[in-house]
Each structure stands twice: as C-alpha cells, then as structure tokens.
Amino acid sequence: MNSSTPRPRKNASCLPDATAMTRAPFHLASCTESFDALASEARELAMSARPDGALVSWVRHVLKVTRDYRGVVASMAAAIADPDSALHASCVAMKAAGARLLARAQEEGMARNDMDGADLFALIGALAWVGDQPSLAPRAEHLFDLVASAILMDQANSSARRDERPPVGR
C-alpha cells in the first residue's frame, strides 16, 4: 500500500456508538493506554538533543493514534473539557506533555513563540480530521509538512531541501 492510500482502521472508538456499547470497557482501556503511552513518549522525547525533531516525531505518533481509532479526536477534546470523563486525566496529561515538547522547542528558538499547547492540540485535531476524510487523506502528509514548517522556525527550509517532490495534487 503506498503512502497516498488510506490505511485500514481498527474498528474502535473511544466514544462507541450504540452497537459497540458492549465493547465500551475495552475501548476505554485501549484509549487510556494509548493516551498514557503518548504522554510517556513525550516525556522521553523531551530529553532528546533536538527539540524540533522530538516535537515532530511526537505529533506524527499522535496522528497515527488518530488514524488507528475512529472518533478519538472528538473523544480527546471532549475529555479534556470534562473533568468527570474517564479519559480526562489521560488526555490532560497527554496534552500537557505535548505542550512541554512545544515549550522546549520554543525555548531553543526552534518553534514560533506565538502558540501554546492548546494551539498545538487544535492543529493536531485539524490534521487528524483531514486524515479522516477519504477525499483529503492522500494530502495528509503534505499538509502535515506545511503545518510543521509553520510551527518550526527552520522546518520550511529543511523540508524543501529534504524533499524536492512537487506538491501533491498538482
């Protein structure tokens, strides 16, 4: 399967519909494990010598999780806003860990200073939405590169040097 072909997804959701209610405890545990793992990964990446690379790597992994679980972006956003949600603590910890990766890149002058963890989370949600749309999914990697180059100070130049391919869809 090439990179422009949407990958098959697990039949999972962190907020299951009525037909999946019997599987809800499994889905909840699976999502919590995924979010906890993303928070842990962010803490490990924070020790990386390259804060910009750590941030990009982590965001890519978050986006992979959003491709693996249907509805996870809406679940994450809802859980962060709802302290009574079973996913709240995991989602808040994951978001905070990502915000620390961004702050570290900002401290090193590698990321723009006019954004915060909430902005990063919103951009991740937008990129995940693009990946969920069959007609837009083939552009997801290109759009990720555009967003990364907007966040990271030197990303636009290194991305252009790294990959001289023409923009997708032209």
Describe the structure.
This protein is mainly alpha-helical and 170 residues long. 62% of the residues lie in helices and 4% in strands. Strands 1-2 form a two-stranded parallel sheet. The longest helix is centred in the first third of the chain and has 22 residues, at 24-45.
Question: What's the helix and strand layout?
Answer:
Layout: E1 10-13, H1 24-45, H2 51-68, E2 69-70, H3 72-81, H4 88-107, H5 117-132, H6 140-151, H7 155-162
Parallel strand pairs: 1-2
Helix pairs in contact: 1-2, 1-4, 2-4, 2-5, 3-4, 4-5, 5-6, 6-7
List keywords for this structure.
170 residues, disordered C terminus, mainly alpha, 7 helices
Order of helices and strands: EHHEHHHHH
Number of helical segments with 4 or more residues: 7
Instruction: Name the shape in a single word.
Output: globular
**Over the alpha carbons, how many angstroms does the gyration radius reach?**
16 Å
Output the structural class. Answer: mainly alpha
How many runs of DSSP E, i.e. beta strands? 2
N-to-C CA distance: 21 Å
Mean pLDDT score: 79
Helix residue percentage:
55-70%
Which assembly state applies to the chains in this document? single chain
In spatial order, strands of the major sheet run 1-2
Beta content? under 5%
Largest sheet: 2 strands, parallel
